[in-house]
Each structure stands twice: as C-alpha cells, then as structure tokens.
Design goal:
The protein has about 325 residues and is of the alpha/beta class. It has helices at about 5-15, 25-40, 50-55, 75-85, 95-100, 105-115, 130-140, 180-200, 220-235, 245-250, 250-255, 275-290, 315-330, and strands at about 15-20, 40-45, 65, 120, 150-155, 165-170, 205, 240-245, 270, 290-300, 305. The chain contains 13 helices and eleven strands. The strands form two sheets. Strands 8-7-9-6-5-10 form a six-stranded mixed sheet, sandwiched between helices.
Length: about 325
Amino acid sequence: MAFIDTIKERAKADKKTIVLPESMDRRTFEAAEKILKEGIANLVIIGTPDEIAKNSEGFDISGATIVDPFNDPNKQKYIDKFVELRGKKGVTPEIAKEQMEKDYMYYACLMCKCGDADGAVSGACHSTGNTIRPALQLLKTKPGISSVSGFFLMEVPDCEYGENGLFVFADCAVSPDYDSEKLAEVAKLSADSFKSFVGKDAKVAMLSFSSYGSAKHDRVTMVADAVKIAKEKYPDIAVDGELQLDAALVPEVAALKAPESPVAGKANTLVFPNLEAGNIGYKLVQRLAKAGAYGPVLQGLSMPVNDLSRGCFADDIVGVVAMTAVQAQNA
C-alpha cells in the first residue's frame, strides 16, 4: 500500500472536520467530491451561494457543510473571537468583519479557533504567506515553539535508504533562513512529524557541505551549533551532524566520514540548512527519482493548517486534507 493510502485509512478511522476556504477554485470542489466519496474527512467549504454554484457545477458536494461568510449565523461569534485575539493590534469589530469577508482563510482559522473545525487547507490560489499569516495571527504556534516550518514527506520508489524509502525533508517551504536555535527547533518538529506519520522513530541528520568539521565556514558552524542545541534541548530525539548527504544516508560513506554517529548512514529525517537547499533538494528527488512528495505540511502551529502549491491537482488537495486530518488526530 502506498504511503498516502495508509494516511487516508488513518484519516477515515477517526474523521475530522477540515475547512476548505478556496471556493473560488474548481479544484476545491473536484477534491471535495473525492474526499466525501472516500469518507476521508468531514468538510466545510466557505463561499457565497454564487461562488459555490458557479465553481461546484458538475461535482457532488452534497455531503459538505457550506458556510456563507456574509450570512453565517455563527459570524458574530467569530468576529468577537477575532477582536479578542487581535484587539491589541487595532482590530475592531468592523475591521474583523471586513477581513473575514475579504479573506476566507481568516474565517477558516476562526472556525478552528472556536472549535467548529479541526484544521484547514488552503494555497491552491493563494500564496504560502496568505495561508500562514492568518494561522499565525489567530491560532499561533504551539507552546514553546517560536516559528513555523514546512516539510515534505517523500516516498522514494525502490530505495534502500531512509525508512524503506520514506523520508521527511525540512524546511522546504516556509523560512528562507535560520539561526542555530530555530534550526534545532526544526529538527525536533521534524522528528515528531516523522514519528506521527510513519510510526517509526526519526533519525535526524542536520545537513551541510561538511561532515564533522571537514570544512570550515560560518554556515557549517551554524549547523554544528544547531546540533549541540538540539541534543541539549531535545534529548528524546536521535539527531546528529553536521553531515553531508552521502554520510547521512549511505552506511559505507558514514563509516568513513562519521564512524561514531548514531544517525549517519541511516537517517530518515533530513533537515536542510536553509530553504534554498531544502526546496531544491525535494524537487530534485521528486523529479529525478520519481518520488512522491506529500506537502508542504506545516509544523509548529497549535492547530493543523496546511499549504498547497498553486500548481496542485485535485488529488494533491485530497492527500493534504488526509494528512491534515491525521495531524488533527494527534493534536
């Protein structure tokens, strides 16, 4: 069974309510029909009657709950919550109402915050920033977590490395750069994500162009310091570095470059030193190895909100909704 099929089965076993705010895109409705037919999640779709009628034509979404952001009986509750959360930032009831009507992602996050939904998925026609910003403002990060990062769960066919070809790659989607503290935090979050989705213990390699000091550079030092911080703050995870990619994955290379490492040669969770490397890395593996790339999945938020590529297909939305539902089960 493919990884995503396993995730769908887990989602079906304890159905969660996921909000889809992009009623202006037909892919939302194509995905919604599949999600409802397969029983993956309960769905809320936010949109006006005109938006729903126009963009859902030809798709059976009769099992979804439709919320009209202009005529929702729960709207005042969400306005009050918005003002409670952002009043000190100058948000008045009038501003809250206008923002919710203009950007349905704010509405989706408020539904989650008020307990009327378990998670949200957006990004088919919105930027990553426009997906994450409302979540950060309204849902905020988990206690003790300072930032949000994004990972891809990679399923590489016929691969002897990782967990039978399964890997977490992070951060591939959110922050362009990190310092050592935040990189250590990404290591912890990524280890937890791997365990949650794959069901196996993570072995986290902090990647660099150096292994154990083989090169000298400020960027190498940054990764090495992140490893020290991660080992001190998160003793429950197996993490090591800095490691070059071949040392992280290949036992024979690990024996030469990092012979005492508990992770080298058997890593299944790869933390890249910056977004540039992570984004290039996952796309190389996806295209050259014909790997499945599931995500980007956001980690660090208090409730699951996930992003989509603007070039996504309906099946991608289905997969991300299933992953969001599984995150909600473990929240």
